[in-house]
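Lab notebook, bench 4. The sequencing result for the construct came back, and we need a structural model before the next group meeting so we can plan mutations. Quick request posted to the team channel:

Model the 3D structure of this chain.
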Amino acid sequence: MRTEFTPAATALSSPQTKEMRADKARETALAFEAAFVAEMLSHAGFEKALASDSGVGGEAMTGFLVEALAGKILERGGFGVAELIMRRLSNEAENVD
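Done. Here's the predicted structure in token form:
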């Protein structure tokens, strides 16, 4: 017998209150969106642009700056990825309950 493993559904079925699950889903979704935005900025060349003419120390620190900028973008509303993830997780939670 093959059992399909769904990590989100498994995590949501643990004995927690709905509020705790919603908080965890929000935290996870926002963390994912922050990482997603940081990766997009890096692939768009933002990290290389910051590192140019900054020396070895500046190159080492640009990743932190990109992450901080991604956090600021999220504070201003982000791209909506976290909201989509939270909707999906809440739908799975309703199906588990």
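Residues 18-43 form the longest helix (26 residues).
Will bring this to the meeting.
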